[in-house]
From TrEMBL:
GO annotation terms (biological process): methylation
Tree of life domain: Eukaryota
Protein name: S-adenosyl-L-methionine-dependent methyltransferase
Keyword Transferase attributed: yes
Organism name: Linderina pennispora
Entry keyword annotation includes Manganese: no
Gene3D superfamilies recorded: Vaccinia Virus protein VP39
Length: 260
């Protein structure tokens, strides 16, 4: 299982410390790490299973670069993302941050049988090239377009007349760009009425709430800079009256944002 599913107990405790009611299942508060791992495995077993072509792509991504493959969403998060696309009845879906295409497969999985399309952008041309091959291999060429361009360019160039409004946007590119991407989406009016933005990694390994509390971080380098950017981003969204948001302390922190 990918490390994104792992939630350190210190994070779980931090999430509960100021709550009068539990936000996660109370069992997770006191469970041993083995029990938590088992709960995650069990959740994975009960959830929708990863389609075989997706599993092959995930395994190829791990063989391609095992370290970088940790960037990908897990199969459990994939199933969750597909559910979100279905629940939003999304037709036009945009992903910022494709990597090798794994999450795009799950987003497309959530589309209706005969309608809808996923555009997924990746600034690294070599990686985008591999992603396009994975999409073809999974038989989803008709449903997914890999756009080998930076996210801000894609948002600036998004042609509303041509491609219509976006019903679902998954933000999973460089964390320092999140605020700019969000502003472009909202200022350009790219999101459909009732459309949903899902933003990944907004707790950033639990570091964002720690920084919010003014805690000293072990990692004072790049990690802290990213956590501060995400702290600023989360606050920015929370103060924007154009949207309503929920931050879910699942996976690496998922922010769900809807047009108000
Ligand atoms: C976390 S990974 C995406 C993982 C993918 N969503 C998945 O779960 O399978 C982030 C990707 O965004 C790409 N990226 C970073 N900055 C970007 C930008 N400004 N525009 C487009 N892609 C970017 C990186 O090259 C990397 O491949």
């Amino acid at each position: 299982m990918m490390s994104r599913l792992w939630q350190p107990k210190s994070l779980i405790r931090a999430l509960h410390s100021s709550c009068t009611r539990h936000t996660l299942h109370p069992f997770l508060e006191t469970a041993s790490s083995g029990s938590v791992a088992h709960a995650i495995t069990y959740s994975q077993q009960i959830s929708e299973q990863e389609p075989e072509p997706f599993r092959l792509v995930r395994e190829q991504a791990i063989s391609f670069d095992a370290h970088e493959a940790r960037k990908m969403i897990s199969p459990l998060q994939g199933s969750f993302m597909a559910q979100m696309v279905r629940a939003a009845r999304a037709e036009n879906v945009l992903e910022l941050g494709c990597y090798l295409g794994y999450s795009a497969l799950w987003l497309a999985h959530g589309l209706g049988n005969d309608k809808g399309h996923v555009w997924t952008c990746e600034r690294d041309m070599r990686v985008a090239d591999h992603a396009a091959k994975h999409v073809a291999q999974a038989g989803l060429l008709q449903r997914i377009s890999v756009v080998p361009e930076p996210a801000d360019k894609v948002l600036r160039d998004w042609d509303l007349a041509d491609r219509r409004l976006l019903d679902f946007i998954f933000i999973d590119a460089n964390k320092s760009g999140y605020r700019g991407y969000y502003d472009l989406i909202m200022d350009r009016g790219l999101l459909s009425q009732g459309g949903l933005i899902v933003v990944d990694n907004v707790l950033f390994h639990g570091q964002v709430p720690q920084v919010a509390l003014g805690k000293q971080m072990a990692d004072e380098g790049k990690g802290l800079r990213i956590a501060k950017k995400l702290l600023d981003f989360n606050q920015h969204v929370a103060q924007d009256s154009r949207t309503v948001q929920t931050l879910l302390p699942v996976f690496d922190g998922l922010l769900l944002v809807r047009r108000a």
